Amino acid sequence: MRDVVEVAEAFRGFFGDQDRRPRLFFAPGRVNLIGDHIDYSGGLVLPMAIDRGTLLVARQRRDTTIRARSLDRPGEVIADLGDTRFDPAHDWFSYVIGVAHTLATDGYALDAGFDLLFAGDIPDGAGLSSSASLELVTAVAFNTFAGFGLAATDLAEVGQRTENDYIGVSCGIMDQLAVARGRRGHAMLMDCDDMTVSYVPFPHDRVTLIIANSNHRRSLADSAYNDRRQAVESAAELLGTTRLVDLPLTELQGGKRHLNEQEFRRARHTITEQARVIEAAGALRSGDLERLGTLMRESHESLRDDFDVTGPHLDALAAAAWAQPGVVGARMTGAGFGGCAVVLARRGAEAEVVEGIERDYLARMGTAATCFVVGSDDGARELADEEAEA
Ligand code: GLA
Description:
The protein is an alpha+beta fold. The chain folds into 3 domains: about 5-200 and about 375-390, Ribosomal Protein S5, domain 2, CATH 3.30.230; about 205-220 and about 310-375, Alpha-Beta Plaits; about 225-305, 2-Layer Sandwich (Alpha-Beta Plaits). Helix content is about 40%, strand content about 20%. Alpha-D-galactopyranose (GLA) binds next to helix 5.
């Protein structure tokens, strides 16, 4: 999390002091331990909220203007609550005004505007859910100020619909739900069909979570993502199932003639990934980290060979991680097409692992990857004074 005092001071510098007190909100990013590209099929996934994310200082206004700034980008964006239509010129601010738009569509119209200052510490476009973090920090702030009384899961859905209907990315619910309902010290076994979450203690005493960023930004990710989803949906339809994740592999084999080669591979990933998630959650619960590591590797290979979303950068990053003796498991995380890998390193071996991955990746690709250690965190929330001062 960015330095709260610094961000609060910057807010005063931009928007001035007033009788109304600004309030502070934080939404984490997320890393997915295993279970990619199956949330939109209603599968089980195993993400975790991380201790980096988006900080927001917000103050309600007496008019209906939303004035927003980000410490990470130049300039100021202004909109009026009377006109929340999508405008490509709004860039990152679309996620903010989009949340107000979605809330209003649901009957929760804001009647007062805001001064908003955002400050993040997750790289964008890196597969760590910077957009869900931005949506959820905004949704929690609006919900709190306006007293709508919406629960965390409702806010996650507001975030997802903003992304689907306003931004135009057909994402599933995993990112928004992980960001909304994370719990420190735990991974979340999340059922993306009914949105129930069971929290699985994460063995922070045995392993450290490292994010390895290829620094290769996802390109054409939105259209490629939507294509993948379409292929999976068409495979499910051709196989006559609404629950592709639960289809036995033998039935996929039996129905192979109905599918083209690509649909077949997309469906095979969907089915095998679900099985790996279930086994991985069991391995995490029983402390079998070696098994977890093997499943993470198999997941990466399936995303590479059957789902075609890893690409040379993530493949090199995963290979660099697998080559380190202190690594328990590693795989790409999130949508793919560039971005980050998640690495579980044995406690005490972090420095060696980071150095080894960075050296090995540089040798393989000729460009630098950046590794950083992350912890787990709670979901999107208003920061209580103690947390804000910590
Ligand atoms: C993106 C989407 C999620 C999910 C992942 C892949 O992060 O937002 O809904 O589909 O990709 O697992």
